Amino acid sequence: MGDPTEPLLGRAALVTGAARGQGRAHAVRLAELGADLIIADVCAPISPTVTYPAPTADDLAETARLVEATGRKVLSRVVDIRDLAAQQQLVADGVALFGRLDVLVANAGILSWGRLWELSEEHWDRVVEVNLSGTWRTVRAAVPAMIEAGNGGSIIIVSSSAGLKATPGNGHYAAAKHGLVALTNTLALEAGEYGIRVNSIHPYSVDTPMIQPDAMLELFGKHPSFLHSFPPVPLKLASDGQSGFMPAEDVAEVVGWLAGPGSGPLTGLQIPVDGGALKY
Ligand SMILES: NC(=O)c1ccc[n+]([C@@H]2O[C@H](COP(=O)([O-])OP(=O)(O)OC[C@H]3O[C@@H](n4cnc5c(N)ncnc54)[C@H](O)[C@@H]3O)[C@@H](O)[C@H]2O)c1
């Protein structure tokens, strides 16, 4: 029986969008649980329609440093998840280094704002291209290597509360994140025979640069009825009672549990990580 404090010892995990925010927290948590890490991020602006700042290669290097500080190994690379060939090369290099691939956290994503009939094609295309099609390309690159390694595994698809309910002001984002539910559940059926589990998580209001209170307040100022779709989190979190936003590390705890043996029989599930907000 393995060390219960390091249930992922000897395993390898790939995390996309790992330069900062939730992706960094997931990488560090999986390393704490014993896994060696393959981390990727585009580390550059995707589109002028995305109005919060992008991370840099230094941010990704800092994630790599934090992983190494746990004592685990890391393969770190600037990769755009819209690029299938680059992700296939990254996976091949990771498997050459670590001998296997057990865990995938498909986390990279972008957000922009606008009502559906006012969005530009640039708004729509970039969000769908990254959040839905890019995530499929990550899956396309990783799953054959996981099957080839023959050890089963766990895939965590990072959707959103907007993947389970309507969110006025970002319908393109919600459409892409709802699409990830279909991807997750189809993949759970298809990969099950290889011992690979697939679940989606649906975070809400996590404290990262993606959350722009000013943009949201401007939207709610123009359309006060939209406010009802973005309720306060009912649960007072032990980790942060101050900001009202959930720390990324809380989401990473759930990801670590989904990656490991403790969640062994679970697949094809949608798991809200929302402090109860979806119940409003
Ligand atoms: N923050 C929230 O409240 C919240 C809520 C629900 C879901 N999410 C989802 O969680 C995930 C992580 O977001 P976050 O909150 O940490 O925001 P973030 O902006 O800090 O992190 C997203 C990361 O993905 C990277 N990325 C974007 N496009 C990429 C691409 N094409 N290729 C590779 N990397 C790319 C970014 O560079 C960034 O480092 C996203 O999928 C997001 O949609 C966030």
Secondary structure tally, helices: 7
Mean of all residue-level pLDDT scores: 96
Structural class: alpha/beta
CATH homologous superfamily assignment: NAD(P)-binding Rossmann-like Domain
Question: What CATH first level would be assigned?
Answer: Alpha Beta
Strand order of the largest sheet: 3-2-1-4-5-6-7
The CATH topology name reads Rossmann fold
Judging from the principal axes of the Cα atoms, what is the shape? globular
Helical amount: 40-55%
Ligand set? nicotinamide-adenine-dinucleotide
Order of SSEs: EHEHEHEHEHEHHE
Write the layout of secondary structure elements.
Blueprint: E1 12-16, H1 21-32, E2 36-41, H2 57-69, E3 74-78, H3 84-98, E4 103-106, H4 121-149, E5 153-158, H5 171-191, E6 196-203, H6 213-222, H7 248-259, E7 270-273
Parallel strand pairs: 1-2, 1-4, 2-3, 4-5, 5-6, 6-7
This protein binds nicotinamide-adenine-dinucleotide (NAD).
Nicotinamide-adenine-dinucleotide binds at residues 16-17, 19-23, 41-42, 46, 54-55, 80-82, 107-111, 130, 134, 158, 160, 203-206, 208-211.
InterPro entries: NAD(P)-bd_dom_sf (IPR036291), Sc_DH/Rdtase_CS (IPR020904), SDR_fam (IPR002347), SDR_subfam_1 (IPR023985)
Organism: Nocardia jiangsuensis
Pfam family, one: adh_short
